[in-house]
């Protein structure tokens, strides 16, 4: 008969967690990963991180004995970040005291593609380890599992909190949004059919690592001259976007989406230590896209992450026209394109 410890050392789970693209941007944080404003994002499908987490017997006296592999190779830098995350949140993972953890991680997209890899990575890690904790404790997974995973993922990467839910998700306390919270994201369930099956074509303008990390960018909001007005604007826009999604107002969505993208980069350009992440290809792609929309009347728009790459958003009904335009009209602006779409949230890969 195997002991509990022997059984625990055989535990292995695999989870897949998607990335997401914010429509209303989260930029600025305080305390322990608390956002300065609410945000709202679209969960993706094809851009995901897959994590296999396995327990084994501990062979050292380290507080956290972790082996973290990315694409089959030891990743020391990210391993240290994950080990700190586990140690800081050890009350959620009581098994780390007696067990070594091996994490095998891989992305479905190029690592420096400008897709939020920290969001999908911490999402998948949190799901896998929380799943192990639930299994050890004999707890059933219900809706609160994903809420708890969202809270945990937030502590690793704020945006990761939103990747726990299908379709559109909001994170951050907002007086106008019922059940909203700074600690976890919530799914936005009332969405007009016009916004179902949204597509996201990610134009990789540049595939070099960013010169300024998101963590540094967030910190520059601490003494930003426009910070308070920005946080107020973002909260108002998040609440407004919930109503836009409910009403099916595509024109208002397009305006909100593009204005938020430009506002995010305006915050970077007007920080005390200002910086510029957009590139000539970014500007050219945006200008060509706006001209295409004006001439074709196709409801397509852009957003930007904290980098130079352009996310082109459009309804599935227009994918033929938009993808022809991307493949031909925009071809000289990007190095690569990743065609993605609205996703259904995380998936457990083994039983």
UniProtKB/TrEMBL annotation:
Keywords: ATP-binding, Lipid biosynthesis, Lipid metabolism, Lyase, Nucleotide-binding. InterPro entries: GHMP_kinase_C_sf (IPR036554), Mev_decarb (IPR005935), MVD-like_N (IPR053859), Mvd1_C (IPR041431), Ribosomal_Su5_D2-typ_SF (IPR020568), Ribsml_uS5_D2-typ_fold_subgr (IPR014721). The keyword Lipid biosynthesis applies. GO terms for biological process: isoprenoid biosynthetic process. Residues 202-329 form the Mvd1 C-terminal domain. The keyword Nucleotidyltransferase does not apply. GO terms for molecular function: ATP binding; carboxy-lyase activity. Residues 18-180 form the Diphosphomevalonate decarboxylase-like N-terminal domain. Pfam families: MDD_C (PF18376), MVD-like_N (PF22700). This is Diphosphomevalonate decarboxylase. It comes from Fluviicola taffensis (strain DSM 16823 / NCIMB 13979 / RW262).
């Amino acid at each position: 008969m195997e002991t509990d410890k022997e059984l625990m050392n055989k535990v292995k789970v695999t989870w897949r967690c998607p990335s997401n693209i914010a429509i209303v941007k989260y930029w600025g944080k305080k305390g322990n990963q608390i956002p300065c404003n609410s945000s709202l994002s679209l969960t993706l499908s094809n851009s995901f991180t897959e994590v296999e987490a396995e327990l084994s017997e501990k062979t050292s006296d380290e507080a956290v004995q972790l082996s973290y592999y990315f694409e089959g190779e030891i990743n020391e830098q990210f391993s240290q970040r994950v080990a700190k995350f586990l140690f800081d949140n050890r009350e959620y993972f009581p098994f780390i005291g007696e067990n070594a953890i091996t994490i095998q991680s891989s992305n479905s997209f190029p690592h420096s593609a400008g897709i939020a890899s920290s969001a999908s990575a911490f999402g998948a890690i949190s799901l896998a380890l929380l799943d192990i904790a639930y299994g050890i404790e004999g707890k059933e997974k219900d809706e609160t599992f994903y809420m708890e995973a969202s809270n945990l993922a937030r502590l690793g990467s704020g945006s990761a909190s939103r990747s726990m839910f299908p379709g559109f998700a909001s994170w951050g306390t907002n007086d106008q949004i019922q059940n909203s919270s700074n600690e976890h994201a919530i799914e936005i369930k009332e969405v007009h059919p016009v916004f179902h099956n949204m597509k996201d074509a990610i134009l990789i303008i540049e595939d070099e690592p960013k010169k300024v990390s998101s963590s540094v960018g967030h910190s520059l909001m601490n003494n930003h001259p426009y910070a308070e007005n920005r946080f107020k604007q973002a909260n108002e826009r998040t609440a407004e976007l919930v109503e836009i999604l409910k009403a099916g107002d595509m024109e208002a969505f397009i305006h909100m989406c593009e204005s938020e993208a430009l506002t995010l980069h305006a915050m970077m350009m007007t920080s005390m230590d200002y910086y510029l992440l957009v590139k000539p290809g970014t500007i050219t792609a945006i200008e060509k896209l706006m001209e295409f929309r004006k001439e074709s009347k196709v409801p397509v728009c852009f957003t930007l992450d904290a980098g130079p790459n352009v996310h082109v958003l459009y309804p599935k009904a227009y994918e033929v026209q938009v993808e022809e335009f991307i493949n031909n009209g925009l071809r000289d602006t990007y190095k690569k394109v990743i065609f993605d779409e609205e996703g259904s949230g995380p998936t457990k890969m083994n039983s």
